[in-house]
Specification:
Layout lengths: L1 E10 L6 H19 L3 E9 L3 H10 L3 H18 L6 E4 L3 H16 L3 E11 L4 E3 L17 E10 L5 H10 L4 E2 L1 H10 L7 E2 L1 E3 L8 E2 L2 E6 L1 H6 L1 H4 L9 H5 L2 E6 L3 H15 L6 E5 L2 E3 L2 E2 L10 H8 L1 H11 L6 E3 L1 H30 L15 H22 L3 H22 L1 H4 L3 H5 L1 H20 L4 H10 L3 H4 L63 H5 L3 E11 L7 E6 L3 E6 L7 H4 L3 E5 L5 E3 L2 E3 L2 E2 L1 E5 L5 E5 L11 E2 L1
Parallel strand pairs: 1-2, 1-12, 2-3, 7-13, 12-13, 14-16
Antiparallel strand pairs: 4-5, 4-6, 6-8, 9-11, 10-11, 14-15, 17-18, 17-20, 17-26, 18-19, 20-23, 21-22, 24-25
The chain binds ligand ME8.
């Protein structure tokens, strides 16, 4: 089966940041997953280089647009190898074949009667590079760029988008997978419930020359979105490449919510006007914020992918973003969060499982994978583990296919947890002390561990390619790893008996907290020196009572609450605990100010103060998060079961 998957093409006026990295890692992981399923995959990314924004930025930098675009296009291209992202093709909208394709399509749509010339007056946002409708404005300003759009009146060419409105509504309604998650599909349908205007697709050369000239009127260049969207066709050789029809029939686009409208409305109608079928699926994700605040250059909190990789390692970065964000919802980056995932999920759960299992195979089975477990030597615990690993494969596959990466990883980590418990309950070091058990039960347990680890290596390949490759090599499966398919894991005994393992590999060295980062409330290292012959201490990742005591939890009464301007997540609370203080809490999507006034909540009272949206926050309100079946999260405030004075210490 073919798969053709794309990222947006990124504007060349900003250096790559966490947001660009996320979409591209997602698309890379999905491509690798599809290859694991046996598909022929084409993965495309690239840069969007024309338009007013780029021309202006180049002028500011004292460069020609071409020089400027070359510099940034190179910065994007150089970022991908650091993130283990391996696109098959990197397109630039200044490539000659793209320019030719755009002109060919403009001529085609013009010849078909869907492009006309007309006068237009409207409100133009330079940041969005499009005319905005009155309805889209908030307090007279563009909600994304917070500036008043300029009234502009000029003659231009228009694409008859309105003609395709009914067709598009019908297509979205009859193809539930066309736009996912569902909230974005609903957003598009709601937008389409109003009459659709035609799309202005040109800019006069008197105002802008950095663009693709219209083939039928050289006094105009092409509007940057009409140019940019066509990259998805140029990259696979529209219209003449022999593979074009096959690739296009499998097209899937990955974007964030900021560019939903061009992809869900302009693009399908443009394709329809060209006489092409629409793409298959549009996957829309939310925004990464940083410490619950919008990531922006002016706030100085932009996260650069290369710096993250230098601190945590590429596989930790890939795992973190895929595990932490529920695809479709916004997520907040913090160094505490990535550090906690690195140390708890990776170094502790997976890393220790791997090293202790291999150490035991080395020690108790002469470093070789033991013989196949015959059905009559399997105990209920073995059968349970096998069944769980098989179910995990189904869940993983289904979740990866529907872009629920966090759920796919949760399914894998359930089996990792099960394997860790399997070691504790079967205690191979005890079995080794008894000659009979050492000959019969011990090889069974060790083989179960090796098979479990091999499955985990294979399914983690798309997310953490280097780690998975290391695991496979240590299990003596390095050569098979490149060609293994997920279907090869059906059945259990996939590892040849006698395969030599290499116990030396360490997957994730622990990363210490950067000095400026406040102590996370999550696990810290607890090195226990014991006499047990168990290879790794079982209480890694737990905290001591003294560590717990350092966190000052108190009951607080909410005396005032208000929404934080320009944030849909934050409420500013005034609490008494017993002295009065301000806490900014990320609960606005779940509680109205009136719902929380008068409540007694639990707070972390000795958290270092931090500024959120410019408001100093002194503490943190505790709440429980629940994952919903549709991938969204529900949040409920933690509180006390009976009347108690504000300020009481919780222990
Ligand atoms: O819009 N969180 O380019 P662009 C998550 N050239 N993802 C983010 C993000 C954030 N905070 N910020 C950016 C353009 N992104 C056009 C696209 S496509 C034919 C033309 C990611 O450089 C996300 O994928 O502004 C978003 O859709 C994209 O970068 C916007 O990139």
């Amino acid at each position: 089966m073919p798969t053709y998957v794309t990222t947006p093409i990124y504007y060349v006026n900003a250096m790559p940041h966490l947001g660009h990295a996320y979409t591209t890692i997602v698309t890379d992981a999905y491509s690798r997953f599809r290859r694991l399923c046996g598909d022929e995959v084409r993965f495309q990314t690239g840069t969007d280089e024309h338009g007013e924004k780029i021309a202006e930025a180049a002028a500011k930098a004292g460069e020609t647009p071409r020089e400027y675009a070359d510099r940034f296009a190179a910065a994007f291209r150089e970022t991908w190898p650091h993130l283990a992202v391996e696109p098959d093709y990197i397109i630039r909208t200044t490539d000659p074949d793209h320019v030719a394709t755009v002109q060919r399509i403009l001529q085609l749509v013009h010849d078909r009667g869907d492009i006309y010339f007309s006068e237009y007056s409207g409100l133009y946002c330079r940041g969005c590079e499009r005319f905005l409708t009155e309805k889209e404005l908030v307090d007279g300003k563009c909600p994304d760029h917070l500036v008043e759009p300029l009234p502009i009146s000029e003659q231009n060419y228009f694409f008859r988008m309105s003609r395709y409105q009914d067709w598009l509504i019908d297509h979205i309604k009859t193809h539930p997978e066309f736009i996912t998650p569902e909230r974005y599909r609903n957003e598009v349908l709601s937008f389409l419930s109003e009459p659709l205007e035609d799309l202005c697709i040109s800019r006069p050369t008197s105002r802008l020359t950095w663009g693709i000239p219209l083939p039928f009127d050289d006094k105009f260049v092409t509007y940057v979105w009409f140019d940019a969207l066509i990259n998805y066709l140029t990259g696979i050789g529209y219209p003449d490449a022999p593979d074009f029809p096959r690739s296009w029939a499998a097209a899937e686009h990955v974007i964030a919510k900021d560019i939903l409208k061009p992809h869900a409305i302009y693009w399908p109608t443009m394709l329809r006007a060209m006489g092409l079928e629409p793409f298959q699926r549009l996957h829309v994700h939310g925004y990464w914020n940083v410490d619950a605040t919008k990531m922006s250059k002016s706030l100085g909190n932009v996260i650069r992918p290369k710096e993250l990789v230098d601190t945590y390692g590429v596989d930790t970065v890939r795992y973190f973003v895929l595990r932490e964000m529920s695809f479709g919802l916004d997520s907040s980056f913090s160094s505490e969060a990535i550090l906690a995932r690195h140390n708890a999920d990776l170094a502790n759960d997976l890393g220790n499982l791997f090293s202790r299992s291999l150490t035991m195979i080395d020690k108790y089975a002469a470093g070789r994978v033991p013989e196949v477990v015959t059905a009559d030597s399997a105990l209920p615990a073995d059968l349970e583990l096998r069944a769980a690993a098989t179910t995990m494969l189904d869940h993983y596959r289904q979740a990866m296919d529907s872009f629920q990466f966090h759920k796919a990883l949760q399914a894998v980590w359930e089996v990792i947890g099960l394997l860790n418990r399997y070691i504790v309950t079967n205690a191979p070091w005890e079995l080794a002390k008894d000659a009979d058990q050492a000959a019969t039960r011990l090889p069974v347990v060790l083989r179960m561990l090796a098979e479990g680890l091999w499955r985990i290596a294979v399914v983690l390949g798309p997310v953490m390619p280097a780690t998975a490759g290391k695991m496979a090599a240590a299990l003596g499966m390095g050569e098979r790893f490149g060609s293994v398919r997920i279907d090869d894991l059906q059945g259990w005994d996939t590892l040849p008996a006698g395969t030599v393992i290499d116990k030396g590999a360490q997957l994730f060295p622990r990363v210490d907290r950067p000095k400026e980062t406040p102590a996370p409330a999550a696990p810290a290292t607890n090195k226990k020196k014991g006499k047990s012959t168990e290879p790794v201490a079982a209480d890694e990742g737990l905290i001591t009572f003294d560590q717990f005591k350092n966190i000052e939890l108190r009951v607080a009464e909410v005396v005032a609450a208000e929404k934080v301007a320009k944030s849909d997540r934050l409420l500013k609370l005034t609490v008494r605990a017993p002295e009065e203080r301000t806490i900014v809490a990320g609960i606005a999507q779940f509680y109205e100010p009136a719902d929380v006034i008068g409540r007694r909540v639990l707070i972390v009272a000795n958290l270092k103060p931090a500024k959120l949206m410019g408001i100093p926050s002194q503490g943190m309100v505790l709440a429980a998060k629940e994952q919903q079946a549709d991938g969204s999260e529900r949040l409920v405030l933690a509180t006390v079961a009976g009347p108690i004075a504000a300020g009481s210490r919780v222990a």
